[in-house]
Amino acid sequence: MCAGGPKGGNHAAVAVRNQIYFLGESGTGDDVNQIEVHIFNVVSLYWIKLPPVPNRRGKRPVEVPPRCYDHTAVLIEDAIYIWGGYGCANNNLWEYSDELYAFDVHTHRWSRPRVSGTTPMERRDHSACALGTTMYIYGGYTQQRYTNVIYKLDTTAMAWSAIKTSGTPPPASLQGHTATVIGTHMFVFGGYGDESYSSAVRVFDTETDCWLSTTTSAHFSPKGRWGHSAFAYNGELYIFGGCNWDRTFNDLWRFDPETFSWKKVEVKGKGPSRMYYMCCCMVGDRIVLFGGYKVSDQGHKSIPADNLFILDLSPSLKTLCKLAVNRNNLKLSGLPHNIRSELVAMTKKTGGKPKPCTAKAREPLEILFARRKVLGLAHPGQNSGWLNILKLKMGRKIGRYVDIGIHMEKEKPPL
């Protein structure tokens, strides 16, 4: 069994159906120079960790990425593409990377695709997003300087090309920003460059290769930051967390591309800590957020986080019924086995007896934030033993934080 779930930040993660694939160095792995792969099942609430690929003559197989961070990952069809970052080579020297790796989500096997064209310069802290069968790389730090050139990889032909853009001058060279695809447009927000933190939203049209002219209100928008998370939902852009020189954030903002305006989602009660460089993925109507770095109580020390949050933007009737069962402490004996298993997973701690959720009822339209400290299994029977409730206004919706049991297992290697 694993000692715990993924921990720390500057990693990459992608959603594959009902699972989240974490790819990075969590600090919980074996003493081998290979990237770690953890998988979280959003339905069963289980973590599993894939075993490392056997070394060849004491060295890492060339088709497997080394330990690294500040890299990016995107899902295209049935493959996860890893590119760039700062990794540990076979000579144990850390260096910037321009290598492309592919991970098959069915066979769980790595490969190193042969590519042609103009390969981007090695870099870290860039952004990557996918549109159809194309991966877009933007920004980052290249050892020598920041860059604002956009590259794209056609994964059908496995060919790189640098995009010659037009229109409004491109954003300042950035690192630690986010790039999110909505429709055929790439929305770039935040990042650090030119000795300042950006709070601008810049839009790139992938059909015309043109940067669009945009203006947002500086009086009501997120503060400039880097290391935040971003995701798209129902045609709108959301950002969470991040940091700048002055502070670390745990605020949630929503951006409307039609009106080009921001709206802050006010959160009351105890929620996610101020954090940055966490992983954030969309699974259906749920956002899964985990890892990253949180700030100590004194505010001057970064602590690797191993917490996991689930934001359910549109809970099903089944989810609401399960909450009602837990809320009223009803007997489970008459329910189908799969429902009983899910109810136990929602309330069970690592070891010990299941503890029912005591959350009180709210309106049918609600946002469910689920948080669970991923405990090390070296201490069986240890319980987190806490439950937090909060009201989160987003339109008419109400949100709450609920303690959820998460289990760790180690997967057998694929045949």
Structure description:
The chain has 415 residues and is mostly beta strands. Among the domains are: 114-267, Neuraminidase, CATH 2.120.10.80; 317-410, no CATH class. Helices cover 5% and strands 37% of the residues. The chain is built from two helices and 36 strands. It has helices at 317-327, 337-347, and strands at 12-16, 19-24, 36-41, 46-49, 68-69, 72-76, 79-83, 86-88, 94-96, 100-104, 110-111, 116-117, 127-131, 134-138, 150-154, 159-162, 166-167, 178-182, 185-189, 192-193, 196-197, 201-205, 210-211, 229-233, 236-240, 252-256, 261-265, 275-276, 279-283, 286-290, 293-295, 302-304, 307-312, 366-373, 398-403, 407-410. The protein has a five-stranded mixed beta sheet, with no helix packed on it. A five-stranded mixed beta sheet has the order 12-16-15-14-13, with no helix packed on it. The longest helix has 11 residues, at 317-327. It starts with 11 loop residues before the first strand and ends in a 5-residue tail after the last strand. The model is unreliable at 349-415 (pLDDT under 50).
